[in-house]
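Subject: for your reference before the review

Hello V.,

The reviewers asked for a structural picture of the protein, and I figured it would be easier to keep everything in one thread rather than splitting it across files. Below is the amino acid sequence we used in the manuscript, unchanged from the supplementary table.
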Amino acid sequence: MTSLPSQPHVRLTPPTPAQVLGLVTGPLAFALALWIEIPDLGPAGQRMLAIFLLAILLWVTEAIPLYATAVLVILLEVLMLSDQALIGGLVDPPSAASWFATLANPVIILFLGGFLIADGAHKFGLDRNLAAVMLRPFAGSARRSVLGLMLITAFLSMFVSNTATAATMFAVVIPILAALPAGAARTGVALAIPVAANVGGIGTPVGSPPNAIALGALEAQGQGLSFVGWMALAMPLMLVVLFFAWWFLTRRYVPKGLPLALTLTAEFDRSPAAVLFYLIAGATVLLWLTEPFHGIASSTVGFIPVVALLATQVMSGEDLRRLQWPVLWLVAGGIALGAGIGQSGLDAWLIGLVDWERLPLGLLLLLLVAIALGLSTIISNSATANLLVPLALSLAIGLPIDPTAVGVMVALACSLAMALPISTPPNAVAYATGEVPTRAMVLSGLAIGGFGALLLAFLMPPIWGALGLL
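And here is what came back from the structure prediction:
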């Protein structure tokens, strides 16, 4: 008699006080929003307000995993706002299929391709070998080496997840840290990696989840933005903030004239599978960058490597299982939340609560950026973007500024929040090395993030307008 294989024992972690608060207040706010009669808000808007409040409280407290809240939003929209709603009273409701379709939104397909390429780059060692090759010209001076580290980290983060980039770069940097004297210099070099990974992620649509959330929200309002269009808006800010960050970190932590010898080796995988991956990944990036010439949508281009890598068996089903599906679901939930806020009329009701036109435009933009930056510092930047981008786009409709600019600004501000170890995964990776004190991370995060926020609020909109980008 054969015995069945034993199942792994799953241990449930006791909830934190914040999680308990979310589990209590979230359903309570949901119920109250449905029960209390709200003036000037129709049935669809009232149901969406309940869903929105529940999502806010669950995301802010992380009472359940972020991706679980995201799919809960989709389910509640199907059960309360679709043609299959359990409660009637809606006029011409959207189909249930339209809410489920957010799980396969074109932005999700774009990110799917980006994630598969990122995993392939790690699988074949392309990311680490590229970093080693690109660092060689910066050897000799510690300050010059930090500049090289930040440029390479930012470049990789434009196409690879900032978490994977930070982990890869720390694998390259650990021997370099050992060659430095203990103290400020090590702190500066170690801080340079998460800062550059966070800043670099704003450069392309696939660099960070808030970018994808903003793209999805813009497409829902009929204001799509191409891959190159996003880069044209984001890269000038990315480069200015990156060089400011290098100047700040080296002046504060890395003494002038400090020598630093780099011994870096690169051994590129030359197997047929690796070479095929290089060709497919390179062709994909080239198609993304030339979208205005060939006209193939970036999301369609993003699906090409998925098919090509799986069909040629360069990537397997096992690789597919390792993709960051929770992030994709989180982005899908944000797209669904934004669509629900717009279609239910909740956006107009929320915007009507305040006379926004009384505020000067510059002050209003600074307020939006500051809220995004502050909230992203303490909760997930993806969750913050999910909550703020749809509202910001609705608010922008009545203002003398292109709504696209407002959506992009809020998304970029979310990625500039990096003042705490919990702010972003790259920060957590850096903190785990033991080389970065919390005080140093707070100081650099506030200085660099604050500098970027001021540029976003006051400088970038007129520059985008003057260059005809919006």
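For the response letter, the relevant points are probably these. Residues 140 and 352 are 59 Å apart (CA to CA). The longest strand covers residues 140-141.

Happy to draft the paragraph if you're swamped.

O.
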